[in-house]
Design goal:
six-stranded mixed β-sheet, single chain
Length: about 350
């Protein structure tokens, strides 16, 4: 498969030291007990060399049902950030259950006019997929602020925190390919082989559900792609079902490789009753499709996250347990048009 049908890639403008990064409630609310974690997240972003501002809806204790605010209010604030030329990047405070409520309210023209890095995972991965489908924007499937930068990062070693900080900063400011992402002993080769292609993915339930909407990625966008996915909660059988949906939709016949994140709180994985491992589930659904699969890579809800820039071409070597970014995720300031 080739990726000739993929959209023209729209890389965000590179950040420079001192640029303004806004942390926004793009989905779930900020519970009061996690306000200190948000403060620690702000400090991490400042250590990367950027100024930080909190968006107005990000107020401890403010909520509407399971959301930070009604979807139309979140969309209004998000669109305002997209249009604000002082704002150079947007970091989601957390995931949640709200992005589906405002997909039809997003100002896609504002994204095209001033593309900015948007960082987050979980429900925010839906935002990345839709913006990639509608504009070609490179989205940063990376740590959210409060449970990520202010939570998981704080429980990591000082060396790991420093490594991640340098990696995030390089992806946001550098216009050269990052190359190999830092590996760890957790990475496993579930099926050998090599592949190159654009990274496409996110939390698997959002990926599958998005394909049932008018905002779905055309199936051709998956031609030659390296599909990455992770999942939080639910049952092992749910993951098997999501993968079966991707099989029935033809997506698994189009991709060139797969990268699976560390699972988090999924019931029924490798339990004493003989339930399968995640690797067994993946290989069961893939059948005889001869594509490389790399498992237990550090992205997703288990955190801290390695950044996975959606749309950027990557090289996967499952035998060697490596994943390399072959293109920059951002573009120099002088560039004013989408680049391929």
């Amino acid at each position: 498969m080739t990726n000739t049908a993929a959209p023209q890639l729209l890389r965000p403008n590179a950040l420079v030291p001192g640029d303004l990064v806004v942390v926004a409630a793009l989905s779930g609310p900020l519970h009061a007990q996690y306000a200190p974690d948000l403060e620690r997240a702000v400090a991490e972003i400042e250590r990367m060399g950027f100024r930080v501002r909190l968006a107005p809806l990000l107020q401890a204790g403010r909520h509407r049902w399971w959301s930070a605010a009604p979807p139309d209010e979140i969309a209004k604030e998000f669109n305002g950030l997209l249009r604000d030329t002082e704002v150079r990047a947007i970091v989601a405070h957390d995931g949640g259950q709200t992005v589906f409520g405002y997909l039809d309210l997003i100002d896609f023209d504002a994204v095209k006019a001033d593309p900015k890095p948007i960082l987050g995972y979980s429900d925010i991965s839906l935002l990345h997929l839709v913006l990639y489908a509608r504009t070609g924007l490179v989205g940063f499937h990376a740590d959210v602020a409060t449970p990520g930068l202010g939570g998981h990062w704080q429980r990591a070693s000082a060396a790991r925190r420093e490594e991640l900080g340098k990696l995030y900063s390089a992806l946001l400011t550098g216009t050269e390919p990052i190359g190999a992402l830092p590996t760890s002993p957790s990475w496993e080769c579930w099926r050998p082989g090599r592949a190159e292609g654009p990274l496409i993915g996110g939390v698997i339930n959002r990926l599958v559900l998005a394909q049932a909407t008018p905002f779905a990625l055309p199936r051709e966008y998956f031609d030659g792609a390296v599909l990455f996915w992770e999942e939080l909660g639910g049952q092992a059988s749910h993951v098997w079902t999501y993968l079966q949906i991707l099989r029935h939709s033809g997506i698994l016949d189009r991709i060139s490789g797969m990268v699976v994140g560390v699972p988090e709180a999924i019931d029924g994985l490798a339990s004493p009753d003989g339930s399968p491992t995640l690797a067994e589930i993946v290989l069961d659904v893939l059948g005889d499709r001869d594509i490389p699969v790399l498992g237990n890579v550090e992205f997703g809800h288990a955190g801290p996250n390695l950044p996975m820039p959606v749309g950027v071409r990557a090289a996967l070597d499952a035998d060697q347990r490596t994943l390399s970014l072959l293109e920059p995720a951002v573009r120099p300031h002088a560039m004013t048009a989408p680049v391929s």
